[in-house]
Amino acid sequence: MEFSFKETLTLESDGKEKNFDLKEIEIPAEYVYKSIPKIEPAAFLTANILDWEKFNFLPGEANLYFEGTYVGKSNLDLSNTDTLTISLGRDPSIIVDRK
């Protein structure tokens, strides 16, 4: 795989870690909420990605964004099945109450 940058990058040799985006893509996914109110009164959102092989993902740490908002990091384990499942964390807009 080959990446080319639209802009010229200058990387200083100051020994500090540098981060920059190589590529940004939107990935179609099926979203599923999961909740076990007996254990925790919250709903957690997961994304199931079909045909993920066509995106040429590499195993390792990934920054996750959902609806334009950074939701955290995840470790991509690509040794799974045909569906890649990624946890997007707790959804504060959903309230769960067990009675």
Concise description?
The chain is 0% helix and 35% strand.
Mean pLDDT, rounded to whole units? Answer: 84
Largest sheet data: 3 strands, antiparallel
Content-based structural category: mainly beta
Termini separation: 53 Å
Overall helicity: under 10%
How many DSSP-defined strands? 5
Strand order of the largest sheet: 1-2-5
CA-based shape: elongated
The proportion of residues in beta strands is: 35-45%
Unreliable parts: none
Helix count, DSSP H or I runs of 4 or more residues: 0
Question: Can you walk through the features of this model?
Answer:
- By secondary structure, this protein is mainly β.
- It has no helices and five strands.
- It has strands spanning 30-34, 44-50, 60-66, 69-76, 83-90.
- The strands form two sheets. Strands 1-2-5 form a three-stranded antiparallel β-sheet, with no helix packed on it.
- 2% of the residues are buried.
Question: Any chance you could write out the topology, listing elements then pairs?
Answer:
Elements: E1 30-34, E2 44-50, E3 60-66, E4 69-76, E5 83-90
Antiparallel strand pairs: 1-2, 2-5, 3-4
Q: Can you tag this structure with a few keywords?
A:
mainly beta; single chain; elongated; 99 residues; two-stranded antiparallel ribbon; three-stranded antiparallel sheet
